[in-house]
User: What shape does this take?
Amino acid sequence: MSGFLSMGGYAGYVWPAYALTLVVLGALCVATVSSLRRKQKMLDLLQSSVRSARRRRDGNQTPGAGETA
Amino acid sequence: MHRFANPTRFLRLADAILPWSIAATVLALGSGLVWALAFSPADYQQGDTVRIMYLHVPAAWMGLFAYTAMAVASAVALIWKHPLADLAAKASAPVGACFTFLCLVTGSLWGKPMWGTWWVWDARLTSMLILLFLYLGYMALQGAFDDPQRGQKAAAVLALVGFVNVPIIKFSVDWWNTLHQPASVVKMGGPAIDPAMLVPLLVMTVGFKAYYVTLLLLRIKAEVADAKIRSLRLTEIHG
Assistant: This one.
């Protein structure tokens, strides 16, 4: 096990390479997913506010007509 | 091609591919990491530093692949004005930049014990550094205009002009004297690398590629959502 950790004396080069790769790829993945979620949430919010604005504008004679427009 | 330029159709396709690309990423990277670190043999000359190869080489290949994808998408966007091609090019850039950065840093960590230096200004290393600057310039140019469409167009032109660097990187080890070793996998006469190292290298490459596909699709989805948000805001103001 200690042989594995010491990487034949090159632990100071091999492990940082692997650690940095995981950190960079992991961070990019987290940033991508969180920005996608944020944008989708904002889009849902905007779409529902547009729908309710249309419903108000279309008045009460045909409830729900704005949904199909 | 035209059928996939439709965002709705693209989103359906992306959602169909994503579970598979995520599974491939986790499986290939998971098994590839264990294989590369524990089960692949140490090199008879380079000892355990050869394990850096399993990150360095796939990162380099994907840095070039992502740039090529970005240049092709930019060309499609400039010529046929496909809205999705612009979004694809934009989504590819940060992922490719990360791969290129990792290639440079892991190469440095490999070069110090094997060459005795972190960095040399030779053809392969310098052209790879230029690739990173091209990615950074592309991303900076996108946001440098008040009109996002003009920024996108300027960035697309930069991506195309910068593509000349891709074959230069590939052939730099043959054209100029360099410390960097020549190609040992993609070359005439087949790979000059033992299967005990070639197989984990290919598994890691599949993992990196699946990661790229996953992130590319997620980022295009985010760009499509962003475009919808912008057009909804416009209709709110004008409608």
About this structure: The mean pLDDT of chain B is 91. Chain B touches chain A through 37 residues (CB under 8 Å). Residues 27-38+49-225 of chain B form one domain. The radius of gyration of chain B is 20 Å.
